UniProtKB/TrEMBL annotation, chain A:
Domain of life where this protein originates: Bacteria
Keywords noted in UniProt: Cell membrane, Membrane, Transmembrane, Transmembrane helix, Transport
Parts of the chain that traverse the membrane: 25-48, 87-108, 120-140, 168-189, 218-237, 272-292
Name recorded for this polypeptide: Sugar ABC transporter permease
BP-aspect Gene Ontology terms: transmembrane transport
PANTHER family cross-referenced by the UniProt entry: ABC TRANSPORTER PERMEASE PROTEIN, INNER MEMBRANE ABC TRANSPORTER PERMEASE PROTEIN YCJO
Membrane found in the keyword field: yes
Family: Belongs to the binding-protein-dependent transport system permease family.
GO cellular component terms, A-Z: plasma membrane
Localisation: Cell membrane
Protein topology in the membrane: Multi-pass membrane protein
One Pfam family from the record: BPD_transp_1
Lineage: Bacteria, Bacillati, Actinomycetota, Actinomycetes, Micromonosporales
Keyword field contains rRNA-binding: no
UniProtKB/TrEMBL annotation, chain B:
Record-level GO BP terms: maltodextrin transmembrane transport; maltose transport
UniProt keyword list: Signal, Transport
InterPro entries named in the record: SBP
Organism: Actinocatenispora comari
Homology family: Belongs to the bacterial solute-binding protein 1 family.
Assigned GO CC terms: ATP-binding cassette (ABC) transporter complex, substrate-binding subunit-containing
Protein name: Sugar ABC transporter substrate-binding protein
């Protein structure tokens, strides 16, 4: 009898746990199902479909081209130009947003009146629709009817025609203006996570403000900087709305960013196969860049 | 005790079933919602889809006259018209996606530059010849349509589109500024135009405002005898010396004579109109599409309309719009019926009276009320000098690439002060790679 009870006790948990695990698995699956369905239908299927389309050509993407679209991209001066413009744009936006965001975060991390208000104001451009941001700056910078030239003229300063003379730099500046609030908030969170103890210890050791920033703040902000730069590069390489809304890639293709070129290829020139191949090449570039950034970041942290 | 309790079967099995039920319902709803994402897509045949007619239209052309007509069309056929309106670039994007997916509208308004030919070349537009053979005489097509306006409708001997509106570029001038400068007549040729613009340029005021949109390059080219596309020789932008001269003239207006501001390098082509209504530019090249904005923003502006300028020939480019039926449209007969209604003379008259938009019918242009109207009459007279700038280039299937290349070349000299000769040569070199010649 005792032996029977012991045997039963030995097997009972196994018998009882299995249905519990199955139930848990079913519940988990049920919870995950909408998300899985969503991603499968709206992300993974289109991704695979795009990969399939990338080996076809023609206005209906029904002529098999093998890897022709991929090799064409390397010889295409328009695609190469758009890629180079995008690299410059990405570098400008990521470096600019990180530097400016860090400076603003350090300032807003000090005890000062109205700090919360400033933090809130800084986030407004980031929370504003890119369509509104694009149209806003297009109207501000218009050399003939824009408000900026009216202000410059009224105070006796020479007027600007930035969108004609420095279109790419102007788009970079607009993008930094929009994104800097977000990077500031991230750096602020990072700064607030650094224990005060480190600064006190450095101060006791006689470290100047700059040395404390250089040797305490910057190293401890490395994870935040890594996150901001990875997200920034991904976002900048995929920028479409600003050139579409503000410059249409002009003048003379000076602000012809890569994804805008992909869009033109697909919907303007009706070459969905080539546009799909261009998209996949960008995906590879972004993946490589992100991996390199993560590796460099991990090495820095270690 | 606690352990034993924890090993009890789930005391609330109904909760599990309910959760499952909820997720099942949610999944079904999710799929349903995803299916409904295609709500804006044209309906499939069968079921209630047969009762829906999808019409793609320009966002600025939803006139009251058309609204009334479409209501009548709906009640006559017992159908619902899904009338979707887009700006031209968005409509072009939508069409490209539709053609790719095979889910197309029943009738589409095009921008008059030759979309039907582009789609005909890929088998995506439906030939209208059977309809025209049946009804052409009754509705006056093609004899009552201005002949030049039909050049962007035919591909390999078949008709794929019907012109709906026919407008053109002409010279807008500020009468008050002209009077203040002692100028009695608007200029008639390029030399007079330059002299007039120089007289009118003073302080913040410019004689003229040129546009950054390459569409506004065409009148100058046509006036100098340049063709964008010559179907016989398969060459673009010929003769070249005249093309360079026309490009240089515009460049010089801005950078040599400084009678026009450098056009804004934005996606906005309304810069000249804004300067004109702000009385900072005395002249601009535009068309009837600017009547309503001017009336709205500067109702008291006293301006006149002059005939297109002359160089080797007095000429201007046609603008406007047309309609075509996609090859996979579900309701082709209904689409043709709607085309007949849209192009009827009484509807054309109603639209012109409502908006000032001008029309392609010869009988429309001959009406005394059209001729006597200060604005509409001026455009109607200018239409006599109109010609098609694309000239059937869409049949090459490379028109979007060519237009994009031309935009780049035009901006390189007009916006960026580059060499006009290099701009034309670069354009021709890139164009030759696309279409040969």
């Amino acid at each position: 009898m005792v032996a029977t009870v012991e045997r039963a006790a030995a097997v009972a948990p196994v018998r009882r746990r299995a249905p519990m695990r199955r139930r848990q698995a079913r519940t988990a699956l049920a919870f995950l199902a909408p998300a899985l369905l969503f991603f499968a239908l709206l992300f993974f299927y289109p991704l695979l479909r795009e990969l399939y389309t990338s080996v076809f050509t023609g206005p209906r993407a029904d002529v098999y081209a093998g890897l022709g679209n991929y090799t064409k991209a390397f010889d295409d001066p328009v695609a190469r130009h758009a890629f180079w413009v995008t690299v410059q744009y990405g570098l400008g936006v990521v470096v600019g947003a990180i530097v400016l965001g860090l400076v603003l975060a350090v300032i807003l991390n000090q005890r000062m009146r109205g700090r919360s208000v400033f933090r809130g104001i800084l986030l407004v451009p980031y929370l504003t629709s890119i369509a509104i941001v694009g149209l806003l700056w297009r109207n501000i910078l218009d050399p003939d009817t824009g408000i900026l030239n009216r202000v410059l003229h009224s105070v006796g300063l020479p007027t600007q025609n930035l969108l004609a003379e420095h279109p790419l730099a102007t788009l970079v500046a607009v993008a930094i203006w929009q994104q800097v609030g977000y990077t500031t908030v991230l750096f602020l969170a990072g700064l607030q996570g650094i224990p005060e103890l480190y600064y006190e210890a450095a101060e006791v050791d006689g470290a100047s403000v700059w040395r404390r920033f250089r040797h305490v703040t910057l190293p401890l902000l490395a994870p935040t900087t890594l996150f901001v730069s990875v997200i920034g590069v991904i976002s900048a390489m995929q920028e479409f709305a600003l050139p579409y809304l503000v410059t249409q890639g002009g003048p003379d293709n000076a602000s012809d960013l890569y994804v805008y070129q992909v869009w033109k290829t697909a919907f303007g020139f009706r070459d969905f196969g080539y546009a799909s191949a261009l998209s996949y090449l960008l995906l590879i570039v972004i993946l490589v860049l992100s991996l390199v950034q993560l590796k460099v970041g991990q090495r820095g942290e270690s | 005790m606690v352990e034993r309790d924890s090993r009890k079967p789930d005391p609330t099995p109904r909760a599990g079933w309910t959760r499952r039920g909820v997720f099942g319902s949610a999944a079904a709803l999710g799929v349903g919602a995803l299916a409904a994402c295609g709500g804006n897509a044209p309906s499939e045949g069968g079921g209630s889809g047969d009762k829906t007619f999808t019409l793609y239209w320009n966002a600025g052309h939803g006139y009251a006259a058309y609204t009334k007509l479409i209501k009548k069309f709906e009640s006559d056929h017992g159908i619902t018209v899904n009338w979707q309106k887009f700006q031209w670039p968005d409509l072009q994007t939508k069409l490209a996606a539709d053609m790719q997916s095979g889910q197309v509208a029943d009738l589409v308004e095009d921008d008059g530059s030759g979309w039907p030919l582009s789609y005909a070349a890929t088998g995506d537009a439906y030939p209208l010849d059977e309809f025209i053979a049946k009804d052409g005489e009754k509705i006056g097509y093609p004899n009552d349509w201005q002949a030049n306006a039909l050049r962007n409708s035919r591909y390999q001997g078949k008709t794929y589109g019907i012109p709906l509106h026919l407008t053109c570029n002409l010279l807008f001038y500020n009468k008050t500024m002209f009077a203040a400068a002692g100028i009695k007549q608007p200029p008639s040729d390029w030399d007079e135009f330059l002299a007039t613009a120089r007289k009118l340029t003073r302080g913040d005021q410019y004689g003229v405002a040129l546009n950054s949109d390459p569409g506004y390059l065409s009148p100058w080219m046509l006036q100098n005898g340049v063709r964008y596309w010559d179907p016989a020789t398969k060459k673009v932008m010929t003769p070249v010396p005249q093309a360079i001269e026309a490009m240089r003239f515009q460049h010089d207006l801005i950078y040599r004579y400084k009678v026009s501001p450098a056009p804004s390098a934005t996606a906005d082509y309304e810069g000249p109109e804004k300067l004109f209504v702000a009385k900072r530019a005395a002249m601009m090249l535009s068309g009837p599409w600017d009547f309503a904005p001017i009336k709205k923003t500067a109702p008291d502006l006293d301006y006149g309309l002059a005939l297109p300028l002359e160089r080797s020939v007095r000429a201007t480019n046609f603008a406007g719009s047309g309609v075509f039926i996609p090859a996979k449209a579900k309701h082709k007969d209904l689409a043709w019926d709607l085309i007949k209604r849209l192009t009827a003379l009484d509807v054309e008259n109603a639209v012109t009276r409502e908006t000032g938009v001008t029309m392609p019918r010869k009988t429309w242009a001959k009406q005394s009320w059209v001729q006597d109207d200060k604005q509409v009459g001026a455009v109607a007279r200018a239409l006599a000098y109109g010609t098609s700038w694309p000239n059937g280039i869409d049949a090459t299937g490379k028109a979007p690439q060519l237009d994009d290349t031309l935009r780049s070349a035009y901006q390189s000299t007009i916006v960026k002060n580059g060499d006009p000769a290099a701009a034309v040569r670069n354009f021709r070199s890139a164009a030759t790679k696309l279409v040969g010649g």
